[in-house]
Amino acid sequence: MLSDKEILEESKKNFEIRIGEDEVLNFQEVFGNELPVHIEIGSGRGEFLIKIAKQSPDINFIGIDLKEKRVKTLYRKLFKEKLKNVRIAKIYLNEESIHFVPPNSIEKIYLQHPDPWPKKRHFHRRIIQHSFIDIMHKLLTHGGFVDIATDHEDYAFWIVEHFMERQDFIPINKKGFTRETDEGHIETYFEKKKREEGFEPYFMKYRSK
Fold first, then answer.
1. Which one of the listed residues 115, 134, 154, 182 is annotated catalytic?
2. Catalytic residue status for 115
3. Residue 169, domain CATH
């Protein structure tokens, strides 16, 4: 029986994306196929990433997270699941670091319940800023999608307002959001917990022009 350390080491061999300085990934080499690539930013417990990868074996997924504890949890779960269409990148996405993803190569980006940073003095920490939307636009294919979910009403309106101010994304929902779930919706532990507390999620989807 493998120790936890051995499990982590073995899982990293199979699922870690190691990015060299000034390296641009070749997804065909990373995944061994030419299937489309989706990215989840902030994979947390890995529930969404693993479930959607199981639902969509014809899509490659990259989970991105920076926190060591979360990344280790992802590796442990992936060791058990043996999913061939998932890779993990431990990196903070910004203008300097996105060089490792080929421009206009990602078909969909997911942000599942990003930290709303509810206090006004912390608004600058919210991931949805125009600078970050710029980054997502650079990564997405023409016609690619951004899927965002949040249970925080103020943050939902913040997100809608930011995308409304832009010309490079088209909202899929007339109001910029919906409270209805798509077919095959994946409910994470966090989402279920917040629903039980009375906080229904807002779902937002935008298409890149």
1. 115
2. yes
3. 3.40.50.150
